[in-house]
Each structure stands twice: as structure tokens, then as C-alpha cells.
Amino acid sequence: TRDQSNNETWFHERKIRLTASRFGQICKMRANTSCKNTVYNILYAPSAQSKSLKYGREVEAVACQKAELIIKKKIDICGLIIDPDDPYLAASPDGLIENHAVV
Prior knowledge:
Elements: H1 8-15, E1 18-19, H2 20-27, H3 35-44, H4 51-71, E2 75-76, E3 81-82, E4 89-91, E5 96-97
Parallel strand pairs: 1-4
Antiparallel strand pairs: 2-5, 3-4
Domain YqaJ viral recombinase: 10-100
Pfam family, one: YqaJ
InterPro entries: NF-kappa-B_Signaling_Reg, PDDEXK-like_dom_sf, Restrct_endonuc-II-like, YqaJ_viral_recombinase
């Protein structure tokens, strides 16, 4: 699912999984946090199209190129990664480094 924000499969597959970008929200829930509202927001809230996300999409390729120069390693672009043991978990890293470290 490369070219993530322009890929319908990426949107669909993220919608049916708990993604890394939402995991923090779950971990930070308090006893008085509404489970109903949290689940509703995860399942039905429109995708964020903020200025910061737009900027991130625009400069991601350049940022990866600069990071490659600094760390002297190739960053491979990747799509959605689904956990093979727990397929309800997924993440969309900006890239992977040789030893599969996440960028």
C-alpha cells in the first residue's frame, strides 16, 4: 500500500485495524474516558487533513533523502505493515532501514 494517502486499499485496511497512530490514544485512556466515544472516533471520524499532515506528505521524500545522507543507510519506502501474529494491529512507517528499523 505504498503512496498511502492516495491508495484506497491503504485507507480500507487502516480502517479495520488498530494503527500505531491510534495506539497512543488507547493507552492514554483514563477510567473516566468514554469507551463509546473513543471507539466511535476511531471507526467513524473523518480522516484528518490538517495543514501539518499535508506538509508532511509534501516533504516526506526529501526528509527521507536527507536522513539517508546523515545515517549513511538506504531507507526503503513501505506501505501499511500488518502484524502477522496480531493482524488487528498495523502501522504505516515512513520507511524501513536495512535491518528493518522503522523510520
